[in-house]
Amino acid sequence: xxxxxxxxxxxxxxxxxxxxxxxxxxxxxxxxxxxxxxxxxxxxxxxxxxxxxxxxxxxxxxxxxxxxxxxxxxxxxxxxxxxxxxxxxxxxxxxxxxxxxxxxxxxxxxxxxxxxxxxxxxxxxxxxxxxxxxxxxxxxxxxxxxxxxxxxxxxxxxxxxxxxxxxxxxxxxxxxxxxxxxxxxxxxxxxxxxxxxxxxxxxxxxxxxxxxxxxxxxxxxxxxxxxxxxxxxxxxxxxxxxxxxxxxxxxxxxxxxxxxxxxxxxxxxxxxxxxxxxxxxxxxxxxxxxxxxxxxxxxxxxxxxxxxxxxxxxxxxxxxxxxxxxxxxxxxxxxxxxxxxxxxxxxxxxxxxxxxxxxxxxxxxxxxxxxxxxxxxxxxxxxxxxxxxxxxxx
Length: 394
Ligand code: GLA
What we know:
By secondary structure, the protein is of the alpha+beta class. It folds into 2 domains: 11-40 and 48-212 and 386-393, Ribosomal Protein S5, domain 2 (2-Layer Sandwich); 216-383, GHMP kinase, C-terminal domain (Alpha-Beta Plaits, 2-Layer Sandwich), CATH 3.30.70.890. The chain is 40% helix and 21% strand. The chain has helices at residues 11-22, 100-111, 140-155, 162-177, 184-191, 228-249, 261-267, 273-295, 302-314, 321-331, 356-374, and strands at residues 28-37, 49-50, 52-66, 73-78, 85-88, 123-130, 196-201, 206-211, 215-220, 336-341, 349-354, 379-383, 390-393. Strands 5-4-6-3-1-13 form a 6-stranded mixed β-sheet, with helices on both faces. A 4-stranded antiparallel β-sheet has the order 10-11-9-12. A 3-stranded antiparallel β-sheet has the order 2-7-8, with helices on both faces. A hairpin with a 7-residue loop joins β10 and β11. α2 (100-111) crosses α4 and α10 packs across α11. Alpha-D-galactopyranose (GLA) binds at residues 37, 41-42, 44-45, 181-182, 184-185, 343-344. Alpha-D-galactopyranose is lined by residues 37, 41-42, 44-45, 181-182, 184-185, 343-344.
């Protein structure tokens, strides 16, 4: 059954792996969590708002930096991977392998140290342990990038503010690894706080915290998301086109999320652009409503969660029958306040929100019925809003 445990991996585990591999102790250990988004989907790359929480699953990275090295090289080992990585950092070389996340983060930190110091060759050794499930849409890559940014910068003798760590991580993902994601995942992993959701305005990059004490049941549909990247890029292009058309009428519009639902309706955009734009416009307003509720000490409304899901299903068209079924099935259980798909969609996870007891009680029946209906084995995790990234030891 779902577990809230987080101690399957920890600072000791990553230190041990590091020592075993490199024969000495690391200089620094840092960690960063995966995330789920409570509401505000496909709004981040449209200048809108999002409301993610960090989950109780983390990635731990141990690092040492050797400044006596003759060239800047990265070596990396992970408890979840059989292959050991080695990569040149100057200029960084892409391998299409798991350690590209580390290379993409470490290279700019080594090449341009903070405080304008002249760069010198540095050899970075890194070890990674993680219990963030990969490939489920829980931002295992963001957790790895953010933890690496904190560990490497600290090993280089610098204090990287968490926001900067998020930016370094996001640039690595978009510019080096080459995934055109928005900023939500890296910011959530870096900046989220325990017992709070992170309210992030993706236009201004302003953040604040909204108290969030409920539990979240995360259900991975086990649906493969092979179309995910192409569909994601297609939606991005549709949003850009919708914005161009809206700007012909309202030149001052800075981004799609800023367009009001009334403007979108009035513009009468061709299908599917009108539906995409309407989703983005309304979804960002739902985030504001959700934040107002949490700030007022109220629980997150199930109605808002369901509206978000229906909009993703009908207007943004990024759901799947399996996800729709999981949402419907979850909200039929007593004490489950609401549910929706979370993350990019086209597979991956849904979240159900409620009290820890209610979700624990609901989980077995949902799991059993899903297996019977689809013949797929879902994975379930229970989490509360966990802490964000941190340097753990140096
Ligand atoms: C993925 C991306 C995020 C965000 C979501 C959709 O998770 O990485 O930046 O765009 O999809 O909300």
